[in-house]
Amino acid sequence: MTGWPILVVEDDAAIRRLLQAALTRAGYHVIQAADARAALAALAIDKPVAVLLDLGLPDRDGLELVQPVKAAGAALIVVSARGQTADKVAALDLGADDYVNKPFDTEELLARLRTALRHRLAAESRAERIVLGDVIIDLAARLITRAGAEVHLTPKEYALVAELARYPGRVITHAQLLRSVWGAGHERDVEYLRVAARGIRRKLEADPAIPRLLRNEPGVGYRLMG
Ligand code: CA
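Above: inputs. Below: predicted complex with calcium ion.
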């Protein structure tokens, strides 16, 4: 990944400097944009592989940049102020890969960036078999095993795991999961998700009370971790 261009869109100069330093140390080539106009220009000229996007920009709503960034084929991580849950969910629904809250932990941000870049590279060669520790999800065979033994999930539990397993490590919003598993019109039935998640954890987690595999992102969605 050395030298890969990463675009940082952020109007706060101090945060830009912090991100510049961390990303440069990690071997990336950093391009900075202080507003949406500069970001759109950089997207066309520098062809970044990933964009770190602040949603509160001086000239435009950062959400307006989500589609141009996805259209350019770049991975997108939203870096937003804590508490702006609705904005984060909107960005994820529009196609952002992940989000990090401010103030952020640099190591966590770099880990999220690596995951998003991996997804972008793997996007064409969709894996049919996902290995998450001792859990193996075989999407082609519709078979899940844990430590070698077959795990029996209900159809909805299976559909939920399969949907999350297509994007390991990535947070999928409640509305996206409800729409793809229960169908259009169920986007607000978050209780369905909670019930299915409980069932999945009971069957797949070493300790369902401390889930390591199926992680909840409060108010946002779920992600499946390896
Ligand atoms: Ca800002």
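The chain has a mean pLDDT of 91.
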